[in-house]
Amino acid sequence: MADPSEQGDDEPQDVDGLFNRALDQYHTLCTVQQEERARSLQARRFATIPGAQWEGAWGDAFANSIMVEVNKVARGTEKIIDDYRANRLTVEFRTVNDNPGDEETAETLNGLFLADVYLSKGQQAFDCGFEEAVTGGMGAWRLVNRYVDEYDEDDDSQCIGIEVLPDADQRVFFDPDALLYDKSDAKWCIVVTPMSPAAYKETYKDDPASWPQDLLKAHYDWYTPDLVRIAEYYHKIEETEDRLTFEHTLTGDRKKLWRSELQAGDFKDMQTQGWRQMGRKPVKRCRVEKLTFSLAGEVAPRQMIAGTEIPVIPVYGKRWYVDNLERWRGHVALSMDAQRLYNASLSRLAETSAYSPIGRPILTPEQVQGHEDEWANANIDRLPYVLVNKVTTNSETGETILQGPLGTLDPPSVAPATAALLQLMASDIAELTTNTDNSVEVKSNVSAEAMDIAATRTDAKSFTYMDNMRQSMQRTGEVYQSMAKEVYAEVGRRVPTMTEDGQHGFATLGEERATPKGVLYAANDIAGTKLNVIADVTEATSTRRDKTVKACMSAAAALGPIDPQGAQVLTGIAFMNMDGEGLDDAKDWWRQRLIQQGAIKPTPQEQQAMAEAAQQQGQQPPSPQAQVLQAQTEKEQALTVKAQADAQLSKSQAIKNLAEAHAKGRETDLAHAQALHDATKDTIDAQLKAEAQRVGNLHKLNSIFGAQAEAVG
């Protein structure tokens, strides 16, 4: 049996070759997607940055004019974002097979995912990606594996975190041959990360050499930070590797290891420990490698990523492939021209209003000489009058003439076209951005069903964005499960978990348990369990909690006369889903009550607390009031037992009396039967004697007749 560790690993790919390939792929992708990414950035600036709606050639055409900006497109995007925040999406892992422990493993992985999201502030990454997808059309986040405690030298355990990737349309670049929405078929991905020169030097101990910025922008800010860009290059490595099976000669246990997991000398150590190789199977394996480049080349050691998937997750507002090019769009792009026209019309109206109703007099230079400032600031300072100079018409005679304005420029009036354009653009923006939500206005004489229909119609306008987010969250769960199979593989490790309600807990990985039939299995075996990943989208306007409260209260009212206990459980569930100030203590009380009734399952911490409370209660002596109550209870129990004993004694005496009566009756019957038997016997004997005598007489007569016959003869 050969030592697999002596066969050597595959030769690593040339770093310079990977650097050149990554740089070429980046240049090519930036060239073909330059316009698309520029429009995406412009839309995000248009909706979020004050003054950005006048950027570019449009603003240049209105130079030296009033430029009013009334951002009407922001309300439409905020409505979609508010709908998402009211109904956050999460990942749910579900079982594929009915193996023992699979259901428990799925629940543990659900709690582990929520705990990792909470501890790494992953919800901020999800929110940032969704908001960029709604405004510009594209957002992204990524998953990373890192040490739980980087300051503990003895703790090598790792966890999974979610990191935010802002400006995704300028930083995240996927393989252009990947056609699926979630990029699960991508072979490579580049994430451009900006950082300050000081941070670059401190991290990489090298002079800054910024990764190129090939994307063009429609507008450049006057003041921007000095940044150095690095490129994080993820690429998949598909190879065939031996999967080795080992069996222990004494215990019979089996385990499987990849050949790359065995270092030099490990094979001999395993032989010494009693392990022997049972089989070898070539298996196709996909691994993900990450390299970090600056323009000067590799700046950090290559790193193998846990799992088999590229851990970068994109999210799109709306996405298409048109003319062999991936294109996307957010909620702002269609309304940008209408918003510009609206701002221009409103600016023209503001400018007209500023000059009205004062006309401009037409004067000669001699008339205003020396009074220019007064005339220039007359409207601003609201002067009651202004002065003009006398005009000398004859220099020889010195004749002067008091002369007024030569004419007047009438103030401008609002053109009918401007008023019509202002009205049209306002309605167009409202239609394109769906920023008018009449469903939130409570009207009299309108049923709740009609309001729900209006809310559903409004929610349908944002459903595409929510559904795309659902696909991205599902992809997040798939990548997370792939990474968790390697990150959370230590048997006996305790990991933190969390429920949707925020309840914290712990789970032990690979804990050995037995089914009721005695079959042993490993509980919480994340590495060896296959699970499906589900992510759902619910209605946006009516939240799940509100619907739960309404449904439970309606069901409790209907179930009350039939099953009061069931109605009580439904009322408790409804109360636990209510939102409001000062309800925390009452919710805890309802939860403990429902746990005692068996309506909901307690968490491991609650089970432990209940066990400790029961043990502590058993060890402490009862209070005097409790002792009096216990004595009274014991007395009542004794009286009850005595009454039951007396009743049992009375019943036994009655049964005895009945038995004696039956016995006496039986003796009487026996005497009567004996007398009857004796009388019958005497009668039979007399009859037998009479019959015997009659027979004897017959014999005598027969003898007499025989003698007479002989005599006659």
Describe the structure.
This protein has four domains: 387 residues, no CATH class; 53 residues, no CATH class; 76 residues, no CATH class; 75 residues. It is built from 21 helices and 21 strands. Strands 4, 5, 6, 7, 8 and 9 form a six-stranded antiparallel β-sheet that branches. A three-stranded antiparallel β-sheet has the order 3-2-10. A two-stranded antiparallel ribbon has the order 1-21. It is elongated and about 215 Å long. The N terminus is likely disordered.
Provide key terms for this protein:
4 domains; disordered N terminus; elongated; single chain; six-stranded antiparallel beta sheet; alpha+beta; 21 strands
Helices and strands, with pairings:
Elements: H1 15-32, H2 34-48, H3 57-60, H4 74-86, E1 92-95, H5 102-119, H6 122-135, E2 138-147, E3 158-164, H7 168-171, E4 172-174, E5 188-195, H8 197-204, E6 228-248, E7 254-258, H9 266-272, E8 275-294, E9 297-305, E10 312-316, E11 318-322, E12 325-329, H10 336-355, E13 360-362, H11 365-368, H12 372-376, H13 378-381, E14 391-394, E15 399-401, E16 407-409, H14 416-433, H15 448-460, H16 463-487, E17 494-498, E18 504-508, E19 511-514, E20 520-523, E21 531-534, H17 544-559, H18 564-576, H19 584-597, H20 604-619, H21 624-712
Antiparallel strand pairs: 1-21, 2-3, 2-10, 4-5, 5-6, 6-7, 6-8, 8-9, 11-12, 13-16, 14-15, 17-18, 19-20
Helix pairs in contact: 4-6, 10-14, 17-18, 18-19
Choose one word for the global shape.
elongated
- Total discrete domains: 4
Strand content: 15-25%
Poorly predicted residue ranges = 1-12, 439-447
Spatial separation of the terminal alpha carbons: 135 Å
